[in-house]
Amino acid sequence: MNNEGNQEQAKGNLKETAGNFLGDKDLEKEGQQDKASGKVKEMADNAKEKVNDFVDKMKK
What we know:
mainly alpha, single chain
């Protein structure tokens, strides 16, 4: 599994929440961007895992 993507999403969530709480729109936006980036990394890692699983099955 992709811990990097999950960690980035969690970091983004914290930044977004803090920005919301503090009224800091820049921090809030940065958090949203981090969450989106983490989601993309997670999706890419999942796709890579599926391809690797498929290749492994084809080798057998």
